[in-house]
Amino acid sequence: GGPAMRAxxxxxxxxxxxxxxxxxxxxxxxxxxxxxxxxxxxxPTETQVTLDSSGGSVSDALAIGRTIRAAGYGxxxxxxxxxxxxxxxxxxxxxxxxxxxxGVVGVHQHYFGQNTILPAFMAVSDLxxxxxxxxxxxxxxxxxxxxxxxxxRTPPAEINILDAEQMADLGLTTPTDG
Length: 178
Prior knowledge:
It is a single chain. This protein is α/β, with parallel strands linked by helices and 178 residues long. The protein is 38% helix and 21% strand. It contains six helices and eight strands, in the order E-E-H-E-H-E-E-H-E-E-H-H-E-H. A five-stranded mixed beta sheet has the order 1-2-3-4-6. It has a three-stranded mixed beta sheet with strand order 5-7-8. A hairpin with a 2-residue loop joins strand 1 (13-17) and strand 2 (20-27). The longest helix is centred in the C-terminal third of the chain and has 22 residues, at 120-141. The relative contact order is 0.14. The model has no long low-confidence stretch (mean pLDDT 90).
């Protein structure tokens, strides 16, 4: 049950619709490069990116977020859409960031990379380096680091849905006026 259970494409699909760039699906390794290549090829005139994604590759999400920020695009989660797991990092890349009342944004612990079973001696340092990378990214994007414990306290099988007030408080969404 729940919003995340809808069938999602297994890699991100990029399109142009309703005056926006639409990014839909699970974030697969390599999607950041595919997105950059798609932008180069398509040269969209739209400056708004709408997200509908159940998450996936964290490193790709960060890279896509950086691409969006560099391009000066805004990000939106529309009514009925979801932005879960690693997707909020893409949301954070927007210069202006909006979540519609019916949009669902949620965070949890995630796996980094393909291989979730790391040798014990590697796991902690690799994970901490990965978390540090996420923290650096959030700082660059102007999102409050208090987002991290909300994610880290929630097991991967669960999702911590953020309400509008929390998102505004954390700077994950930006004020609509001015």
